[in-house]
Amino acid sequence: MRTAGLRRLLTPEGWELLASLPPYDAAEADRLNLRLRAAGHDPELVAAALTQQRLRERARAKFGDFASRMLFTEEGLQQATRLVVAARHADRYRRAGCSRVADLGCGLGGDALALAALGIAVDGVELDETTAALATVNLMAFPDARVVHGDALSHDLEPYDGVFADPARRGPRGRVFDPEAWSPPLPRVFGLRERVPALGVKVAPGVGHHHLPGDAHAEWVSVGGDVVEAGVWFGPLTERPGRSALVIDAAGRGATLRCTDDVHSPARQLPPGPLRRYLHEPDGAVIRAGGVALLAEQLDAAPVSDAIAYLTGDQLAPTPFAEAFEVLDHLPFSTKRLAAHLAARGVGRLEIKKRGVDVDPDRLRGQLRLRGDEEAVVILTRLQGRHSAVIVRRVTGRPGTMVP
Ligand SMILES: C[S@@+](CC[C@H](N)C(=O)[O-])C[C@H]1O[C@@H](n2cnc3c(N)ncnc32)[C@H](O)[C@@H]1O
C-alpha cells in the first residue's frame, strides 16, 4: 500500500469507508471500485481501502477473525507470524514469568498481539514508519501494548525481562540467505541475551545449525505439513539447549519431538534397508531438526537409501511426525516403464512425490500421457541406491488428518 493512501485510510473518513465495505469478493472488486468512486470517494482512498479488504481476506489464514480488525501491507502479512505459532511463542514468556517484553522488529504485530493477549506488557520496535503505524492500530485493543518507531539495536532494554526478535530476511532483491545480512544481523540479535537472558528469536527454517549458539534450543515448526520457521530460545525460555521439531496440525494441536541436547551435533544416519510394507515421509520440521534417525527408531523403520528421508518398515505406528503410505508396487524408474504401468491400471490422476532423484514432476506428468478414471500416488526415489518408482496408497494424511 502506498503511504499517502494509507494516511487517508487512517482519517475518520477512511476508517468509515473501510468499515462500510462488504467481505472481499474478487468477482465484485472492480464493480465496487467504480461504485465507490462514482459515490464521490477519492480514488486513492478507495484503492487503499480495497487493498485492505483484499489483504484482510488473505490474512484470515494467519489471524482468523482478528484479521477483520487489523491493517496490513503485502510484505508485512507475508512476514507475520501466524497466530497459532505466535501464541506458542508468547506462552514461553508466560511460563518463564516474564511481565514486560520488547518485540524487536515487530512488523505488523503478529507476535506482539499474542504476547499482549496473554496479559504481558509488550513494546514493539519497528524501523519502518508505515509498518509501525499499522502495528499501532493492530495493537490498539491492548492498553499495555505500544509500538515505538525506531531501531531495534539502539532500543533501551533496561525495562524488560524478556526480548523477542524476528529479523527481516527480505531485501529489495528478495530473500536474504546470509544471517549476517538480515536486519538486524543475527549475531547481533543473539548477543542481546547478555543483557536480557530470556531471549527468543524467530529465524528462517533453512538456517544452518552452525549459525546457532551452543546454549540455544532451536525448535523447527511446521503447520499443516509446511515448515514455517525455527524458533531459537535462550535462558529461562527453554529447559535445556538442543534441537527439536514442533509439528502443529490443521486443528492447532502440537506435538514435539526432542531430537538432541546438542544443537551442533550432526544429524545421525542409519543404514538403509530393503523396501517394506510401509513408507513413511517425515515431516519437514523433523528433517530440519535432524531427527530422522530418531523417528526411524520410533517407527521401527530404516531409510530407503543413504541420506534419503523416506523410511520403510512393516509397522504402521501412528505418529504426528510422518505421513504413511502403503507400498502397492515398485519398479526401476524409467518414464516409459512407469507410463506403461499406469496405463495398464487406467490411472488418469497421479500425485508425484520425489526425493533424491532429479525429475521435474510437471514435465514427467505430461510425458506419462495419463488416461483413465483411477488415481494413484507415485514416489520417485532411490531404493538402496537404485532410482525407483514406488506406487503407494496414502494411509495417514498430513498431520491432523486421517485418510481411510
Ligand atoms: C519478519 S518482520 C516481523 C514480523 C512480526 N514478528 C510479525 O509477526 O508480524 C521483521 C520486521 O523487522 C523490521 N526491521 C528490520 N530491521 C529493523 C531494525 N534494525 N529495527 C527495528 N525493526 C527492524 C522490518 O521493517 C520488519 O517489519
What does this protein look like?
The protein is built from 13 helices and 18 strands. The protein is an alpha/beta fold. The chain has three domains: 3-61; 77-260, Rossmann fold, CATH 3.40.50.150; 278-394. The strands form three sheets. The protein has a nine-stranded mixed β-sheet. α1 crosses α4, α3 packs antiparallel against α4 (43-63) and α6 (83-95) crosses α7 (110-117). The radius of gyration is 24 Å and the shape is globular. Mean pLDDT is 94; it is low at 399-404. The protein binds S-adenosylmethionine (SAM). S-adenosylmethionine (SAM) binds at residues 79-81, 105-111, 125-128, 131, 151-153, 166, 168, 183-184. S-adenosylmethionine binds at residues 79-81, 105-111, 125-128, 131, 151-153, 166, 168, 183-184.
Brief rundown of the structure:
By secondary structure, the protein is α/β, with parallel strands linked by helices. The chain has 13 helices and 18 strands.
Classified by CATH, the class of the largest domain is: Alpha Beta
Q: How many H/I helices?
A: 13
Main sheet: strand order: 3-2-1-4-7-9-8-10-11
Small-molecule binders here are: S-adenosylmethionine
Features:
single chain; 404 residues; alpha/beta; Rossmann fold; 3 domains; 9-stranded mixed sheet; 7-stranded mixed sheet; 26% strand; globular; disordered C terminus; binds S-adenosylmethionine
List the SSEs and their pairings.
Layout: H1 3-9, H2 12-20, H3 29-38, H4 43-63, H5 74-79, H6 83-95, E1 100-104, H7 110-117, E2 121-126, H8 129-138, E3 145-149, E4 162-165, E5 170-171, E6 174-175, H9 186-191, E7 199-203, E8 217-223, E9 226-233, E10 242-248, E11 254-260, E12 278-282, H10 284-288, H11 292-299, E13 302-303, E14 311-313, E15 322-332, H12 335-344, E16 347-354, H13 361-368, E17 374-383, E18 386-394
Helix pairs in contact: 1-4, 3-4, 6-7
The structure holds S-adenosylmethionine (SAM).
